[in-house]
Amino acid sequence: MNRKFIVPLLLILGLSLSVSAQAKEILIKFSHVVSADTPKGKGAELFKKLVSERLKGKVKVEVFPNSQLYNDKAVLKALALGDVQMAAPSLSKFGKYTKKYGVFDLPFLFKDTKSLACFTGGDTGSKLLTAIEDKGFTGLAYWLNGMKQLSANKPLKTPADAKGLKFRIMSSDVLAAQFEAVDANPQKMSFSEVYNGLQTGVIDGQENTWSNIYTKKFFEVQHTISESNHGVLEYLVVTNTKFWKGLPADIRTELEKILKEVTLKVTAWALEKADADKAKITKAGKAAVISLSEAQLDKWRQAMAPVWTKFEGEIGKDSIAAAVACNK
Ligand code: SIN
Asked: Is residue 96 part of a domain?
């Protein structure tokens, strides 16, 4: 071939090869609602970093924190439509897709985060990962945030103190029943609206973990936080099944490996941050942190106990029993 043609031909070939290499890069948009400096926020960033180190040019992860892209409700719809590829909503936000995750919302079911880890790592927890497969979602991992505390614009020591107050809850009927059990008014609301709701008095209180109360500044617009540890905040790292199954097997395996590594780190961060953020809130002195006595906690337990019976049919008695067994 004439040399005059060879150089341009090679250039065109090189260009089209690089275009096709670029076209092959898989984009994973990971959307979440919390601050980047939370266990989940840090987990998503670490996932992005490890993917860029180990799957360079093959997979790229983009992280969208703070409800930048989607709020709680919208993200699962976006995942179903393929507008994002990964998310990690609280298990309390899947009620539209399965009632089974209600187990994570039962008040005082998990004694502590160790019991929770025993449950998610056991047979029942593993089976629950697949509870939303028929809806087109694949559960990839559980990520820990921690134990929830109760905050309000007045001290909450016994259930009687909650009477008549409006509490923001995630979109869970179990959480609604939990507050109704103490004669309070639950209000389902997106996480991104909580600060304003508290500030303007649309709601009187809320329940959340130390890291969410700290990073979203709820402690600045609440008078008290009762250390109730009455519930858990656990996430499901979730993807669109069609997208996940469509990935080349070697890439999927590597992503699963990375996720396992990240999950361990998220647990460590969650435990560290619960203590550190509680200490920062206490030091700030804006909301008084109230410790509850065993007798006071017992009153909350008793008042909320009927919620277990109310939901045991849809959650499954076996699942509740497996969680109870993890408390030993
Ligand atoms: C989250 O931690 O993802 C948000 C939890 C909430 O909505 O309270």
From this structure: yes
* Ligand 1 atom closest to Cα of residue 235: 3
Q: Cα(140)–Cα(130) distance, rounded to whole angstroms?
A: 9
Does some domain include residue 13? no
pLDDT tops 80 at residue 20 = no
Alpha-carbon 100 to chain mean position: 16
Overall domain count for the chain: 1
* CATH assignment of the domain containing 87: 3.40.190.170
Global pTM reads 0.92
Distance CA 120, CA 122 (A): 6
- Whose C-alpha lies nearest to ligand 1, atom 7? 191
pLDDT given for residue 2 in this prediction: 52
Query: Can you say how many angstroms the Cα of residue 206 is from the centroid of all Cα atoms in its chain?
Result: 16
Whether 294 is covered by a domain: the verdict is: yes
Which regions of 241-296 does DSSP assign to beta strands (E)? 288-291
The pick from 32, 33, 194 for probing ligand 1's pocket by mutation, whose C-beta has the most ligand atoms within 8 angstroms, reads: 33
Q: Token digits for 118?
A: 């025993």
Domain limits for position 217: 25-325
- Could you read off the pLDDT of 212-248 as tens digits, one per residue? 999 999 999 999 999 999 999 999 999 999 999 999 9
Pocket of ligand 1 (CB under 6 A): 33-34, 90, 145, 170, 191, 208, 212, 233
Contact indicator for 301, 178 with CB cutoff of 8 Å: no
Does some domain include residue 29? yes
Please give the full DSSP string across 42-96, using - where no structure is assigned.
HHHHHHHHHHHHHSTTTEEEEEE-TTSS--HHHHHHHHHHTS-SEE--BGGG-TT
